[in-house]
Amino acid sequence: MAEKIKNIIRIMEDIAPSYLAESWDNIGLQIGDYEKEVNKILVCLEVTQSIIDEGIQKNIDMIVCHHPLIFKPIKRIRRDDPIQSMIHKLIKHDISLYCAHTNLDVAKGGTSDVLAQSLNLVGVVPLVKTHEEKYLKLVVYVPKDYVEKVGEVMCTYGAGHVGNYSHCTFRSEGIGTFMPLGGTNPFIGSQGNIEKVCEHRLESIVSKKDLHKIIENMIKAHPYEEVAYDIIPLENKIHYEGLGRVGQLEKNMTLSMLCKTIKEKLNMKTIKFIGNPQKEIKKVGLCTGSGAEFIDDAYKVSCDCYITGDVKYHDAQYANELGMAVIDAGHFETENIICRPLFETLKDHMQMNQYNVEILLSDEDINPFKTI
Q1: Is the pTM of the predicted complex or chain greater than 0.70?
Q2: Which of 19, 31, 198, 285 could form a disulfide with 298 if both were Cys (CB 3.0 to 4.6 A apart)?
């Protein structure tokens, strides 16, 4: 049975939340209908004429890609313009298009993490902070026999995450008092009588973005007709997201050896670099795609080498003056590596949700650059 696009988008929101995208970006459903049902999804880096032809041949209903097809405002749709022609073709063949761009760069398990993992970097953190999560403390008072159930529901919906730990709560026992008034239907006690109940103060940290769904489901699990709870703002700096990554190589290597390693990992025939090929590299910064603007950021956190794509002449000269080794591993090469992990992740989510949707990985070579 086919699945609606709006449910596929919920999965993509789990993989690469839209709030992580840069303000200038254009992500999400670019062509299609949230209520449309899909049987087949094609995963690729970006949309080209050859990708669309592949989709038509394979009876694809939806394309999920990294690079947005519609980036600038469209004033008309004419077939003599490359972008507009592709929009026309997708609409004509009823193929929907969803894009996850800078949100996929920033997201855990996204493009930057995949490149960092391919180099076996350790101690990996974002290079440039772009999003800091706001946290609150949720406190609720629960009768003793229900504290386990309510606590489990809260944590299931996102409460209690601190670093790499989940289900973090604190519980203290005390006496709760209340008097049911007219028109109530109390779980414990009777109207007009003051009740004293053994209760637990159950508290846990929650992210602001998850607060509504946690409270909604906590109230459903709570036995009381009226649930008493507190929301306390916090200043804790617990979790942040950002573009690029910084990490340490498991074993020091020369710049020359690191270039060879990257060529092998990214299946490159040639690679460009700036710096002394014999320089010893330990701390590495990286940003997939076009990230030359962050050379200075990598320098400021004492990276021995910075890896990105689309490095221009003046960027290279600037890095040289800083004494900063830089490897230009290509825009396509540093981002195309996300396609297979995204394909595998989508397949796993379809199985977990019991969605009968086939996920395909494009086999088209769309790299515009060739080497001789």
Answers
A1: yes
A2: 285
